[in-house]
Amino acid sequence: MKAIKIICLAIIVFIIASSFPIFAENDNISKEQSNEQITFGDKSNEYKEYSKSIEDVDYIKNDIALSNPSSSSDSFRIEDNVIVLKEGKTSFDFYSDNDSKFIINLDYKVVNEDFMDANIGVSIDDSYSFLGCESIDVKRYWVDSGIMRKDDLGNEFAAEQVPYDGFVNRPLSDNSGANVLPYEFAVAKGKHTVGITVNSGEIAVSKITLSPPDDAAKLYKDKEKEYKRNGYKNYSSKPIVIEGENAALKNSNSIVPKSDNTSKLVTPSSASTSLVNYIGGTNWKNSTEEIVWNVNAPKTGLYKLGIMAKQDQIVNGCSYRHLKIDGKTPFFEATELTFEYSEDWKLYEFGSGNEPYLFYLEKGKHQLSLSVTLGPQADFYSRLKECAEELGDFYIDVVMITGETPDSNRDYELFKQIADFYDILDANYNELKSLASDVKKLTGERGNNYTAAIENMMRVIKQMKEHSYSAQDYVKDFYSNYVTLNSWLYEMTVMPLSLDRIFLGNPEGEYGEKQASLLSKMVFGIERFLFSFAEDYSSINDSKNNKEIKIWVNWGRDQAQVLSSLINESFTPSTGIKVNLEIVNADLIKGILSDTQPDLALHMSRATPLNLAMRGALYDLSEFDDYDEVMQRFGDSSGMPYEYNGGHYALPDQQSFYLMFYRKDIFEKLNLSVPETWDEFLATTAVLQRNNMNSYIPYTKITAANTTDTGIGGLNLFASILMQMNGKLYNESKNKSLITDTVSLNAFEFWTEFYTEYKLPTEADFYNRFRVGTCPLGVSLYTQYTTFLQAAPEIQGRWGIALVPGTVQKDGSINRTVSGAGTGCAILNKSNKKSQAWEFLKWWTSNDTQVRFNANVESILGAVARTTTANIDAFSKMGWKKSDLEVLLKQREQIVEIPEVPGSYYLTRAVDQAYWSVINGNSSVKDAIDKWGKEANLEIKRKISEYQGEKR
Amino acid sequence: MKLQIKEKRNGFSDNVWYLIFLLPFLIVFFAFTVLPILSSVVLSFFNFDMIDKLEFSGFSNYVRLLLNDTVFTTVFGNTVLFAVITGPCGFLLSFVLAWFINEFKPAIRTILSFLFYAPALVGNAYFIWSVAFSNDSYGYVNSLLLSSGLITEPITWLKNASYTMPIIIAVQLWQSMGVSFLANISGLQNVNAEMYEAGAIDGIRNRWQELWYITLPSMKHMLLFSAVMQISSAFSVSAIAIQLAGYPSVDYSVDTIVSYMSDVGTVRYEMGYASAMSVVLFAMMLLFRWIINKLINKTGK
């Protein structure tokens, strides 16, 4: 008997040990590098494989609490009896009486001062058990700060989101949504250590518990038996109603209460003003985003659940939510509550057949939570993602041989050149086929839209396979279907849901919810229509008081409302200055002409301050004593574009710049390193081109408007390259362009050679080509970063950012200057409240305001709407990945802004005109620059003499 | 009664009622059409940057415009070329098309008329041409040519002066023919069928004579309407060129007076100069309208 036990044990230990293949020999994983060390596409240590390998291990019997770190180190500190984990690794020892598996719960609070979530890695006995446990997001929890905000017209909008001060208890789980349940770890009998490596952030931990999982695997029918066995009674009084917008906690600051004033079904509702009445919507859509509500159960008993919600985003699909009561999943079915498409608010009920699911609550306070989950789609998602990654690699392999536009008459013999051509196609074809049928099984006929993407991909694969001699003919088809497949992959993870109310009611009774009749809907609609005449949509504040400063912004209503609330909370109370904020979608110049101009305007496009200043319409901000002090907030040359004749007419409020993006996986494959100089960039490009790929540098088509709105620095790389060669666009006295100088000519020639000699595309969809990999290297505005991060899951972890290449100087150093672009805010000359206006500008451009403004805007519109603030300190607090922030800040330091001069728009155009005549081969570099440079100088001269000839 | 009113019509006191009924229109017409025209004529003699300067400058704006501005010369040429090709050509084409289509059975005629009118109806649909002629290798035209092996690298259709003009003219024709085509169709249908019978008896020998002596004279007003519409719209085109080729286009190859005018007025804030341009454009349009009138009056003679 004993012998059998020992053998069993040996087998188990062997299984566990064999599941650490990668890290088994390599114990000392360096903290920062751990992300990069993982080779992609290696399935042997995916969590799925791991959890299969520990299937037979029993769950731990009793909870084990880990309290004291096993060694003292500088990776943690003790504060008020709580361990605060800092970056680095902290280990905890424990003893397991048996071979067992468990989940890891943390009682924690994220305490780092930026508003980021923390990220940790969890190792057992100094090795990572599976792919994914080296990077687990530990989310910060948020609460509404105090009461609902209201603008002066009575419109409510969400309270500001502030970090929750208390501790929460959550198990460690997968953030991507591919694995729905918490991670399970297994150990053999004996002494072990759990290592927590904080990759970024700081976490205060009051308790770490190893425990068996909750009832997430238990089916409802078993649970029901348990209810009967225990003799639980049904709850029998009036239903409890929880208003969704009164959430107690949420783990993202994006999840804010919102208002829907288009329906009578949602409570509270009003036809005249917009009231905050629901939560979620498109801000509650990413996997693991959670909302917690407090509920007070009047009696112990069994309750049924109803949710008044609207899922009007996924037309043919469902949104899923995972319900927990006091942090515990009551039974399996609660892990995937299903919300089908509905155009209007609808009462969702959950149950099998006509029998509602019942939930047991004891009398007293409870916490009810719903978190976004991919539910049954999680499996499809991870399978499809795998396919997409393989097909992406395959596409790159093919394009490396054939190019993006293959010659159909050439014999490429792809099936010979690509080693496992048939295997890859076969495997993915079969996998897609089974995926399609599984998706159909889940969704029935309405899944057709979704499976169409898969089926089209299958069709192309099949054609390539069957006509392998002419497989190149399908490359373009492959590309377009692959892009569609990827966008569906992204859409699959998006699960928005608007939630109005949660009901907990008598299992036999009704919720007392009536459907609105057609008549009442109509009456409501008419009321709303009539009220629309009374409302002033352009104003955020009501009063028309002379004592306040008037501000114009040309923004969306969301941003303006955020600004208005910040003004009411912070600016007006601290300074006593009242503000009238107006959304004006018109030229400031028209306001000046009609004498309705504001005192100050925000976000003025690049050349506007100068254009107004030279006509005497703006006030010189350097007249204020503390101007120089305020300018410290921005980069060195940030004020340059707003300077005219020695005066400074605007403060920068937004600033953007170029950054280089590259695909790590492709660079690795081709053995390339990230280029530091333009020569290296071109050498890299040559390698890419030999493999039928390409690089990208930005070029924006110019229009009459963007020559003044963006300025020359934000349209293409010419200005950056010129400055790297130590050239300048204008002379010292700023009355002549130096475009015809030799250095400018050289810079221009170098720049146009990218296109003429090296055949970089003048126009390309960089975003999509970077995703599919045919453009694995490119320079683009840094705002692209958030887009890749948010919307391209299939290349997650496979790309990086780096500084824009530079030009080698005579002394061997590299000049990496880049030009900037952005907006400014200015005070009008006609204003008679200049000092108040200046107070406002100082407040608006301050660190605190910029950070709060951005946090609020992001919480409403999502991270993609991140503002491009010019305030460097505020910029660094906007939730960047730590390693990336370093690159971003380094790049920011390299910005040199270009002055604007009267008529400078003409130089932008002249460069563009010269560019095209060179690209089209119509004239030589010198002729083109001569011709257009002369014209630009004429215009600049004319403009300057017009205004400075008779300077007042 | 009717006769009495007609007799009394000469005295002003009797016309007062007509004027009162016309007043709302006259006010609007004066405020939004006459006044702007007059004010731009006045402004064209001033320097005005919309903020602080309004100074009399005599004819200097006109001198600069006509003698000293190479860009204006280019855009003037472009505008005339546009007007001549998309105006008269578009007009003739739309008439011929209407004449052909008029021969079909009503059901087919309706469908065909709709097809030809559709581009004018859908407004910004010309945007698809910017996708078709995209400079990228994934633009429809480039993609087609590349895969058929006719070219080896994408052509920058809308950024090369030798391609832009033909493309813009084609798109302009495609879009603008609709209105005058519709006017022509309805004109053709209003021709009294008895006239053809009478013509046949009086010795019309073929369809050409029928067209020249009967059809055209009897739809003179329709012709005038569609010609004026076509040509005045041809003078004021700018949207399509700006959307497809950008403004400024390469070498100003497809920019027109209107796009240049809005550039000068709204980007450079030189309202006086822009006004001078608009006056020149206005004069050109009047001239062309007069020529058309003369030409159309010649039909049937």
Please tell me about this protein's structure:
The complex is a heterodimer of chains A (952) and B (301). In chain A, strands 30, 31, 32, 35, 36, 37, 38 and 41 form an eight-stranded mixed beta sheet that branches. In chain A, strands 1, 2, 3, 5, 12, 13 and 15 form a seven-stranded antiparallel beta sheet that branches. In chain A, strands 16, 18, 19, 21, 24, 27 and 29 form a seven-stranded antiparallel beta sheet that branches. Helix content of chain A is 34%, strand content 22%. In chain A, helix 10 links the parallel strand 30 and strand 31 (579-583). In chain A, helix 4 (377-402) runs antiparallel to helix 8, helix 7 (448-466) runs antiparallel to helix 8 (475-492) and helix 25 (904-919) packs antiparallel against helix 26. Chain A is built from 26 helices and 41 strands. By secondary structure, chain A is α+β, with helices and mostly antiparallel strands. The longest helix of chain A has 26 residues, at 377-402. The model of chain A is unreliable at 13-43 (pLDDT under 50). Chain B has 301 residues and is mainly alpha-helical. Chain B has 14 helices and two strands, in the order H-H-E-E-H-H-H-H-H-H-H-H-H-H-H-H. In chain B, strands 1-2 form a two-stranded antiparallel ribbon. In chain B, a hairpin with a 5-residue loop joins strand 1 (46-48) and strand 2. In chain B, helix 2 packs across helix 14 (271-297), helix 11 (220-235) runs antiparallel to helix 14 (271-297) and helix 13 runs antiparallel to helix 14 (271-297). The model of chain B has no long low-confidence stretch (mean pLDDT 83). The interface between A and B is large, with 39 and 33 residues.
